[in-house]
Amino acid sequence: MISIVVPTYNEAATLPTLASRLATALNGRPWELVVVDDGSPDGTAGIAEGLAPALPVRVVRRSGKLGLASAVMDGFAAAHGDTLVVMDADLSHPPEIVPRLVDALKDGAELAVGSRYVAGGGTVDWPLRRRIASRVACLMGNALVPVRDATSGFFALRRSVIDGVRLDAIGFKIGFEVIARGRYTRCVEVPYTFRDREAGTSKFGSREILSYGIQLLRVARDKATGRL
Fold first, then answer.
1. How far is CA 52 from CA 49, 167, 207, in A?
2. Which of 8, 80, 173, 195 is most buried, by CB atoms within 10 Å?
3. Which residues are CB-contacts of 130 (< 8 A; sequence separation ≥ 6)?
4. In the beta sheet, which residues pair with residue 33?
């Protein structure tokens, strides 16, 4: 089964569209959508629960805004599948790319990263400051992991990649943690075009920048001391 883990906070406007597009893209494949909601005041969790049983949606309700990385980890724990996919709820990650990520695992990779920065990938409708910040963040991550889009939040993995692995549940960049600390021998990047969110407001801010800096330092330390 394919388990698609989606952390949410105030994503009521886009979640039904996301679920519908996933159903179309994954037609004929066993899948589930695991929505991990951090107490959204806009009713995201209730809307997600209302999509079932027409769609295979399950909801993990959390009390308060506890953070994206820990939400993904709670989603992993609740998921039934051995193939795990992580993506955003705001439609910036196209659901139609999910089958390509999953197929990359079938073809022998253990980790498949949706990439904006390989041939065929890109970004549209994104402010210049966000494009610059993303490229700088990726360049910093490139020194530590063998992936061009080191900060991607759109990826698929076999569950074995994270079994028994300690991941730092801080900030937004859970993808970087998985790439840096996961147990795999082959990782591929699958190109996609990132689009700015269609509704709602971004959660990106100075706190997330600080958390990413801490992640970089911790991974660098662990590589230097042989823990990775």
1. 6, 31, 35
2. 8
3. 204
4. 4, 57
d(CA 173, CA 167): 11
Chain centroid to Cα 215, Å, comes to 16
In sequence order, the β-bridge partners of residue 7 are 36
**Nearest by Cα to 162 from 75, 91, 97:** 75
Q: Which residues of 158-187 are buried (b: 16+ CB within 10 A; e: fewer)?
A: beebbeeeebbbbbbbbbbbbbbbbeeeeb
Question: Amino acid identity of 66?
Answer: L
Tokens 């709820």 correspond to 89
Peptide bond into 53 cis (omega under 30): yes
Instruction: Report yes or no on whether pTM surpasses 0.90.
Output: yes
Give the amino acid at 136. V
